[in-house]
Write the structure tokens for this entry.
Amino acid sequence: MLGIGIDIGSTATKVAAVDERGTVVDSWMHPTGFSSVEAANVARVHLEEAGLLTQEHSVVATGYGRNAVSYANKVVTEITCHGKGAACLFGPDGAVIDVGGQDTKVIWLSDGVVKKFLMNDKCAAGTGRFLEIMADRLAASQLELTDLARVGKPTTISSMCTVFAESEVISLVGRGEPRENIARGVIDSVVGRVAAMASGTKGMPVYLTGGLCANELIIERLSSALDTTVKTCSEARYAGAIGAARIAAGVA
């Protein structure tokens, strides 16, 4: 029996399927768009076309839009699923930092079990949405924002609120601050907020999952801020879906 995990995030929907040994046999991702229900339907079509959605296979839904997956056998919180997925990908002990579109989570693992967690879900500062808003303000893609930040000089963006931070960026643009310096300030602002949340991880292995796990500059700056090597991998974006799939398959 396969276990299928569907992680509907605010930005992207991730799907993973694992076999009875917990080996990932399928992973797939698409933009969530404006409707979690539609995202769940698109995921269903993918699973049906791949021959993975049968009565013999169990489905666990997680993430921001987990309750929209009408064909799921069970819904599980993203904290549990991200912890289980990260333990599979990286190891049973350490701290998992998940930077999503709408929230950021820090999850402490011991022996593969979530011991505690912190979540920033009240403000977009320090999330993927913050980067998206700031990139739009600078008329750049997120990739271009990162490239600009690499050559920029340190520039302080101090506001803890995304709305006020955007006003700071507008003021910096208005006074002629180079785009690369503003981009550097944006990246440093995100890293600073995430590092503050993860300040209790000293001496622990630290793993990055979520939408920013492929951003090398974020990984470099976060590693520096936490004084450790933040690790990630190509499947880290699917940690929540993999964890959900392992729960569905009954894999420890």
